[in-house]
Amino acid sequence: MLKITTQKKTSETIFELEGKLAGPWVRELESGWQLAVAADQPVRVTLKTVTFIDDAGKNLLAEMHRQGAKLVAEGCMTKAIVHEIASMPVLKRQRHEPV
Q1: Who's near 57: CB < 8 A, 6+ residues apart?
Q2: Beta pairing, strands 13-21 & 43-53
Protein backbone atom coordinates (compact mmCIF):
# COMPACT_ATOMS: atom_id res chain seq x y z
CA MET A 1 0.00 0.00 0.00
CA LEU A 2 1.20 3.48 -0.85
CA LYS A 3 -0.24 6.79 0.22
CA ILE A 4 0.36 9.54 -2.33
CA THR A 5 -0.39 13.07 -1.18
CA THR A 6 -0.34 15.53 -4.05
CA GLN A 7 0.09 19.25 -3.50
CA LYS A 8 -0.29 21.48 -6.53
CA LYS A 9 1.32 24.83 -5.94
CA THR A 10 1.86 27.63 -8.41
CA SER A 11 5.58 26.88 -8.59
CA GLU A 12 5.56 23.05 -8.49
CA THR A 13 3.67 19.82 -7.92
CA ILE A 14 4.74 17.87 -4.85
CA PHE A 15 4.15 14.14 -4.46
CA GLU A 16 4.62 12.97 -0.87
CA LEU A 17 4.94 9.19 -0.66
CA GLU A 18 4.35 6.97 2.37
CA GLY A 19 4.43 3.17 2.37
CA LYS A 20 5.56 0.79 -0.38
CA LEU A 21 6.31 2.03 -3.89
CA ALA A 22 5.66 -1.26 -5.64
CA GLY A 23 3.28 -3.04 -7.98
CA PRO A 24 0.23 -1.04 -9.08
CA TRP A 25 1.28 1.94 -6.97
CA VAL A 26 4.14 2.61 -9.37
CA ARG A 27 1.61 3.15 -12.16
CA GLU A 28 -0.45 5.39 -9.89
CA LEU A 29 2.54 7.64 -9.21
CA GLU A 30 3.47 7.61 -12.89
CA SER A 31 -0.04 8.75 -13.86
CA GLY A 32 0.11 11.70 -11.48
CA TRP A 33 3.59 12.59 -12.65
CA GLN A 34 2.52 12.52 -16.30
CA LEU A 35 -0.32 14.94 -15.49
CA ALA A 36 2.15 17.32 -13.85
CA VAL A 37 4.51 17.05 -16.83
CA ALA A 38 1.64 17.71 -19.23
CA ALA A 39 0.80 20.84 -17.21
CA ASP A 40 4.46 21.90 -17.50
CA GLN A 41 4.85 21.89 -13.71
CA PRO A 42 8.18 21.23 -11.97
CA VAL A 43 7.90 18.12 -9.78
CA ARG A 44 9.24 17.27 -6.35
CA VAL A 45 8.90 13.76 -4.91
CA THR A 46 9.26 13.45 -1.15
CA LEU A 47 9.92 9.89 -0.01
CA LYS A 48 8.60 10.55 3.48
CA THR A 49 8.07 7.20 5.18
CA VAL A 50 8.67 4.86 2.27
CA THR A 51 9.49 1.36 3.53
CA PHE A 52 10.07 -0.48 0.24
CA ILE A 53 10.73 0.35 -3.42
CA ASP A 54 10.64 -2.42 -6.03
CA ASP A 55 12.65 -2.33 -9.28
CA ALA A 56 9.80 -0.73 -11.24
CA GLY A 57 9.55 1.97 -8.57
CA LYS A 58 13.29 2.62 -8.72
CA ASN A 59 13.14 2.80 -12.52
CA LEU A 60 10.27 5.28 -12.38
CA LEU A 61 12.08 7.47 -9.83
CA ALA A 62 15.20 7.39 -12.02
CA GLU A 63 13.18 8.45 -15.07
CA MET A 64 11.45 11.19 -13.11
CA HIS A 65 14.83 12.45 -11.90
CA ARG A 66 16.25 12.25 -15.41
CA GLN A 67 13.40 14.45 -16.62
CA GLY A 68 13.99 17.04 -13.91
CA ALA A 69 12.00 15.93 -10.88
CA LYS A 70 13.62 16.71 -7.56
CA LEU A 71 13.81 13.67 -5.26
CA VAL A 72 13.85 14.34 -1.52
CA ALA A 73 14.46 11.42 0.84
CA GLU A 74 13.84 10.92 4.52
CA GLY A 75 15.34 7.82 6.10
CA CYS A 76 18.46 5.75 5.44
CA MET A 77 17.05 3.43 2.78
CA THR A 78 15.46 6.13 0.67
CA LYS A 79 18.49 8.41 1.01
CA ALA A 80 20.68 5.59 -0.33
CA ILE A 81 18.31 4.97 -3.25
CA VAL A 82 18.09 8.66 -4.14
CA HIS A 83 21.89 8.95 -3.92
CA GLU A 84 22.23 5.95 -6.25
CA ILE A 85 19.77 7.45 -8.73
CA ALA A 86 21.40 10.89 -8.61
CA SER A 87 24.83 9.33 -9.17
CA MET A 88 23.80 7.41 -12.28
CA PRO A 89 25.23 8.78 -15.51
CA VAL A 90 22.36 9.95 -17.71
CA LEU A 91 23.46 7.73 -20.62
CA LYS A 92 23.19 4.56 -18.51
CA ARG A 93 19.65 5.19 -17.30
CA GLN A 94 17.05 3.03 -18.94
CA ARG A 95 13.85 4.66 -20.17
CA HIS A 96 10.98 3.64 -17.89
CA GLU A 97 8.52 1.37 -19.63
CA PRO A 98 4.98 1.30 -18.24
CA VAL A 99 4.38 -1.71 -16.06
Answers
A1: 21, 22, 25, 26, 29
A2: parallel
96 confidence band (pLDDT: 50, 70, 90)? very low
24: CATH: 3.30.750.24
Where residue 52 falls (left for φ over 0; alpha for ψ -120 to 50; beta otherwise) is beta
Q: 39 and 20 in contact (C-beta within 8 Å)? A: no
Entry pTM: 0.84
pLDDT for 98 beyond 70: no
HSE at residue 63, side-chain half, CA atoms within 13 A, is 17
| pLDDT tier, 45 (very low <50, low <70, confident <90, very high otherwise) | very high
Structural domain that includes position 48:
2-92
User: How far apart (Å, rounded) are the C-alpha atoms in residues 85 and 79?
Assistant: 10
Buried b (16+ CB within 10 A) or exposed e, 22-46: beebbeebbebbeebbeeebebbbb
